[in-house]
Design brief:
The structure holds two protein chains of two kinds. Chain A contains 15 helices and 15 strands. Chain A is of the alpha+beta class. In chain A, the strands form three sheets. Chain A has a seven-stranded mixed beta sheet, with helices on both faces. In chain A, strands 9-10-15-11-13-12 form a six-stranded mixed beta sheet. In chain A, a hairpin with a 6-residue loop joins strand 12 and strand 13. In chain B, the strands form three sheets. Chain B has an eight-stranded mixed beta sheet, sandwiched between helices. Chain B is built from 20 helices and 16 strands. In chain B, a hairpin with a 5-residue loop joins strand 2 and strand 3 (27-29). Chain B starts with a strand and ends with a strand. The relative contact order of chain B is 0.14. Chain B has helices at residues 42-54, 58-65, 83-88, 135-152, 180-191, 197-210, 216-229, 233-236, 240-244, 248-258, 276-285, 300-304, 353-367, 401-407, 415-432, 437-457, 462-471, 482-491, 495-506, 526-530, and strands spanning 2-4, 19-21, 27-29, 71-75, 97-101, 107-112, 118-126, 159-165, 168-176, 265-270, 327-331, 341-349, 371-377, 380-388, 515-521, 536-539. Chain B is α+β, with helices and mostly antiparallel strands. Classes of the chains: A alpha+beta, B alpha+beta. The A-B interface holds A 13, 20-21, 67, 87-91, 138-142, 157-162, 254, 486, 489-490, 493-496 and B 83, 86-88, 90-93, 113, 115-118, 157, 159, 176, 178, 442, 445-453, 455-457, 459-460, 462.
Chain lengths: 558, 541
């Protein structure tokens, strides 16, 4: 097997650093400075407009990049480039992040993107199979392949003397990857032998939490349809998904970013012009009027949901073998909505539905969630209720929030978890109340999970805690945000960590021309300075109404 | 080598308010016990102070509170390669280091990286020159130091590790730059502890519990190094039993000597320049206790390298040629997981960067086909090659191992010997083959690149690389440029240079004498079998 440890959102160094501090965060925290597009409403057409190709003379512009800044530009071929400088050691981190992932797998081809990610390592007309990895290893560097739910990353950490060679490899990597049957068979073997990524959530629970049907399968399991792809179909699928216009090239090196950009531009100059196609991943939304206390809008259809991925000016990869890319907005269908309780009844579990893919027969006869007590009949709860979904394997019910794929939202989610863990019990709370919060990491599809035990009204307890956090205990939130900001700044002092944070930064419109952006802004750290940012960047966290209550389905009786 | 530090520190060098002079002419702190309020027991307080002074005890007590500003100078500014040159040579682009010598004689090398949010601090504890202290006690002291630094700095989330190098132990602390003050003051509390015995006893238990049994490879390598450079292999061995058997008094004595600031060296990689006032506080908190009486050498290499080296017993020997070395054989009570092995080793004279680079390149080339290892300390190196011995499956019974070894007759046609001869011939053929310049360049680039990439992955800690530079230097003036210089020399090696060096140093039949070999395995008849290759000598495990 290829000596590439395929992991997903693993960042061992940051994980170790953060775990050492008791943080519940384990991923390279994404980043971005632009206004978060964390909800469909926020994702205005203007904000998601395709980035126009850059003008030809952009390299002639003089851009001064400070020590705490990154240079960002979009090339004519649609490739986004982010370059930062790190002069501590003569090493360079290079990441090619492709905005696609198993979430985009067509329903009939589960495991396609994961296998394609390996196929790209098989080279093309310029690179022999495995040459990209061998070149990195030959210089004493390390190469990783990371397949996330919606992002595939090719990571290299090389000596600075090998930077040019590595950049050339990245400029060749996605050009007409080989589709020979023998290499495809080998790539499938690698994909199948990958261990299942350690995750806190099962596929069904994740799909339910994000209200995105595309997440409802284990992206590493390869179906028969994928095995049977013809060479022509394989070429079409590769071209639809692994495209520079939906990719970001991140470089962290000792050289001046402007000089690095001048090296990169000619390498991609011969590619055809293209608009930027990277998809902005949005959490699916609960049908309006679902939340208890929310006024049901006129014409709202209970249970309707919005597709999970919006692709501004872009195309989601095709859903059938051999088909061309689908038009925008035609991505995977959202999960079947779990019916929610009628507003005001305060009985979130009474009409629970199984998650997409879950066995409907396993639905409990009494759908009341264990440990959960509905408020008295006829009494409306004073807090919004989450949608209840029968999914997951956790013994106790879990509240799950889909974290928007922006760095601000992800860092704030981590800060919220830290703050929840440090809140003190107040007088009217149950003495046995315990809250356990953790972030299931992913650059684009992260989930905040909250387990509440020791109380019969877990939603009420969680709502009260969140309310306190955003109200009178905002100082606690600010403190944890500040601590986390420091941790992230320390973590990004290493080139590979900084490159990962930059690769996880949000897709924004522009800049076509080279532009220096503050690292704090790109990585989302700047947002941590002000707790008032939290409801803006992560709106659903303000209460439990934006969450999904994951309840383990009962095993069917024999 | 050193130049005066250009900019004077804003901190006052001698804060006169804090000191007065005692009748004995020593500087005495005016506030002996700052935490007590004289208002509460004024009379008692004065009486106690007078009493102490009369008894002549005031001087040592005051000494603990003496706060002398450190001597700081730019260290080795001329030989530090410029940033672009260092990056080109795949060496860290550090600026000229600063050297500070604290009032208690602690030697500090300070590496300032402007704006770095990380802090790395490394304590180098030389273990040579104190024969009375066993390696086990030294290991416990390092472990104790690490444990206590970790405990006291818990709030800063520091990570602390112990690393072992030739003739020294290193305690590495990694934290955040913003916590520098707290971490340094915490270190002062750790090293200033009056009675370290309870801490050391805890560390002893922790260290003994974490050690696994010594494996056959460690036994063989210990015996081999002992044969090459002298010294007693068993004495250098650190195992759980040796650690558990150290007494509290022995540990306290080891602490006193090894944590003596006149012996210790500290390397700091920080985002700010030398904080003189802070170092002065550390110096004041760190009492000099050891045999050196607070007078340690200022040069790092004088502290870290033994003044007198042990020598191997007997004349230098060759393998399979006169004067021939006997094979030391260690029969382990149980079969080794990796199978029986033969270790060939020799000591190398490496007086300059060129010879060190040749040795390293030779090791990197051999590593492509063999398990080849090289340790370099200054002008000396140890080179070791491991050859596997075929398994026979005849495990030795504990009660009859000696009997079995004696009873077995030498076996001329033993397949194991035949395989070993084959392996040795292959090794010699490898040495005599001509390796292309491109292949040498690839091997050199791989080594140099991997060193920097590894350093980046493990936290970009300049102190670890500085410590490595020390081992590549013959004098303090060479430390800053050692990695860049060795890298350049490595890339300049030609195939002819390497062939000549191979013949002189690594050809065990025709090259320079200075070889030894040790075999280890769990087969009862291993000594007898190896007698078909060369005379053997049984070594106790």
């Amino acid at each position: 097997m290829l000596p590439l440890p395929p992991w997903m959102p693993t960042t061992p160094v940051l994980k170790a650093a953060i775990a050492g501090l008791g943080l519940a965060l384990a991923t390279p925290l994404p980043a971005a400075s632009e206004p978060a597009t964390s909800s469909p409403a926020a994702a205005s057409p203007a904000a998601q407009a395709p980035t126009p190709p850059v003008s030809k003379d952009m390299s002639s512009e003089t851009v001064t990049v400070g020590a705490d800044q990154a240079l960002e530009a979009v090339l004519e071929c649609g490739l986004r480039v982010r370059i930062a400088r790190d002069r501590t050691l003569p090493v360079a981190a290079v990441i090619l992040a492709v905005e696609t992932g198993p979430e985009d797998d067509p329903p009939e081809l589960p495991g396609l993107t994961h296998a394609l990610a390996y196929q790209v390592l098989q080279g093309n007309r310029e690179l022999r199979p495995g040459e990209a990895v061998e070149t990195v290893h030959g210089g004493g560097g390390v190469a990783n392949l990371a397949v996330g739910h919606a992002q595939v990353r090719y990571e290299s950490l090389v000596p600075a003397s090998r930077l040019d060679q590595t950049l050339w490899i990245e400029s060749e990597r996605l050009r007409f990857p080989t589709t020979r049957a023998s290499t495809w068979k080998q790539a499938l073997g690698w994909a199948q032998s990958d261990p299942v990524a350690a995750s806190l959530l099962g596929a069904d629970a994740r799909a339910a939490a994000h209200r995105t049907a595309g997440l409802g399968h284990d992206g590493r399991r390869v179906g028969d349809g994928v095995r049977d792809l013809t060479e022509a179909a394989l070429a079409i699928q590769l071209r639809a998904r692994f495209d520079y216009a939906r990719s970001t090239l991140v470089v962290v090196a000792p050289e001046d970013p402007a000089a690095v950009l001048a090296t990169i531009e000619p390498l991609f100059a011969d590619l055809p012009r293209s608009t930027r196609k990277a998809a902005v991943r949005l959490p699916g939304v609960r049908a309006r009027g679902d939340r208890a206390g929310d006024p049901a809008p006129e014409g709202a259809t209970p249970g309707a949901a919005t597709p999970g991925a919006a692709t501004p000016g872009a195309a989601t990869p095709g859903s059938t073998a051999g088909s061309a890319a689908k038009p925008a907005g035609a991505g995977p269908q959202p999960p079947a909505p779990a019916a929610s309780p009628p507003a005001g009844t305060g009985s979130p579990a009474k009409s629970a539905a199984p998650a997409p893919g879950a066995d409907p027969k396993s639905a409990p006869t009494d759908p009341k969630a264990p440990g959960e007590a509905a408020p008295d009949a006829g009494e409306a709860p004073s807090y919004p209720l989450p949608e209840t979904v029968l999914a997951g394997t956790h013994r106790a019910p879990l509240l799950a929030w889909s974290i928007p794929g922006t760095p601000e939202a992800q860092v704030w989610a981590a800060a919220v978890c830290r703050a929840l863990a440090r809140q003190r019990r107040v007088a009217d709370e149950d003495r046995k109340l315990r809250l356990s919060c953790v972030v299931d990491p992913d650059p684009r599809r992260a989930t905040l999970l909250l387990q509440v035990t020791g109380t019969e009204d877990l939603v009420g307890a969680a709502s009260a805690r969140l309310q306190r956090l955003l109200g009178r205990e905002t100082q606690l939130l600010a403190t944890q945000g500040s601590v986390l900001a420091n941790e992230l700044r320390v973590a990004r002092s290493r080139p590979l960590e900084l490159a990962r944070q930059l690769a996880a930064a949000a897709e924004i419109s522009g800049p076509a021309r080279p532009q220096a952006r503050d690292l704090d802004a790109v990585t989302g750290v700047a947002a941590l300075a002000d707790p008032a940012e939290l409801p803006r960047v992560f709106p659903s966290i303000v209460d439990c109404g934006g969450a999904v209550l994951l309840v383990r389905p009962e095993a069917p009786k024999p | 080598m050193t130049t005066p530090r250009p900019a004077p520190s804003p901190a006052p060098r001698r804060p006169e308010r804090a000191k007065s002079r005692s009748a004995l002419g020593l500087r005495v702190a005016t506030r002996l016990t700052p935490r007590l309020t004289p208002r509460v027991f004024p009379r008692l307080f004065r009486l106690a102070a007078l009493g102490l002074a009369a008894l002549g005890l005031a001087a040592p007590v005051a000494g603990c509170h003496r706060k002398e500003m450190p001597r700081v100078e730019v260290f080795d500014g001329d030989s530090t390669p410029p940033e672009t040159e260092a990056i080109g040579a795949l060496a860290p682009p550090w600026p000229p280091a600063e050297r500070a010598i604290l009032g208690d004689n602690l030697l500090v090398h300070w590496l300032h990286e402007d704006g770095s949010p990380q802090l790395h601090l490394r304590l180098l504890l030389p273990t040579h020159g104190v024969d009375a202290i066993s390696p086990a006690a030294a290991a416990v002291v390092a472990e104790g130091l690490a444990l206590e630094i970790r405990r006291i700095n818990q709030r800063y989330g520091v990570t602390v590790g112990v690393e072992r190098r030739v003739d020294r132990l290193e305690v590495a602390v990694h934290g955040r730059e913003q916590d520098l003050d707290g971490i340094l003051l915490g270190l002062g509390r750790v090293v200033g502890v009056a009675d370290a015995q309870p801490l050391l006893l805890r560390a002893r238990d922790a260290a003994a519990g974490s050690l696994t049994a010594i494996d056959g490879e460690t036994l063989a390598l210990g015996a081999l190094v002992s044969a090459l450079v002298g010294g007693e292999a068993a004495r250098e061995r650190v195992d759980a039993a040796a650690i558990a058997s150290t007494s509290g008094d022995e540990l306290a004595k080891a602490w006193k000597e090894l944590v003596d600031p006149a012996r210790v060296m500290m390397i700091v990689h920080s985002g700010r320049p030398v904080p003189e006032a802070l170092l002065a506080r550390l110096g004041a908190a760190w009492p000099a206790r050891g045999l050196l009486g607070g007078k340690g050498p200022d040069a790092a290499l004088d502290r870290l390298r033994p003044a007198k080296r042990s020598e191997p017993s007997g004349p230098p020997r060759r393998l399979l040629a006169d004067p021939a070395a006997t094979i030391g054989v260690i029969v382990t009570p149980s079969p080794m997981r990796s199978g029986p092995s033969l270790y060939l080793g020799r000591s190398l004279a490496l007086p300059d960067a060129r010879s060190r680079s040749l040795a390293r390149l030779a090791q990197r080339l051999l590593q492509e086909e063999y398990d080849a290892r090289l340790t370099i300390v200054g002008d000396r190196g140890i080179f070791v090659i491991r050859l596997g011995i075929a398994r026979t499956g005849k495990a030795v019974a504990p009660e009859d191992d000696a009997k079995a070894a004696k009873a077995s007759a030498p076996t001329e046609g033993d397949p194991r010997v035949a395989r070993l001869r084959q392996g040795l011939d292959g090794y010699v053929a490898f040495l005599r083959a001509r390796h292309s310049r491109q292949r040498l360049a690839q091997a050199a680039e791989l080594w140099l690149g991997a060193r920097m990439v590894q350093a980046s992955l493990t936290g970009e800690d300049w102190t670890a690389l500085w410590s490595e530079s020390i081992d590549l230097s013959g004098r303090d003036g060479e430390i800053a440029g050692a990695l860049a210089r060795d890298a350049k020399a490595l890339l300049a090696v030609t195939p002819d240079d390497l062939s000549a060096w191979f013949s002189e140093w690594l050809d065990f039949r025709k090259g320079k004498a200075g070889w030894a070999w040790v075999a280890v395995g769990g087969d009862a008849d291993l000594p007898a079998a190896l007698r078909g290759l060369a005379p053997t000598e049984a070594l106790s495990p």
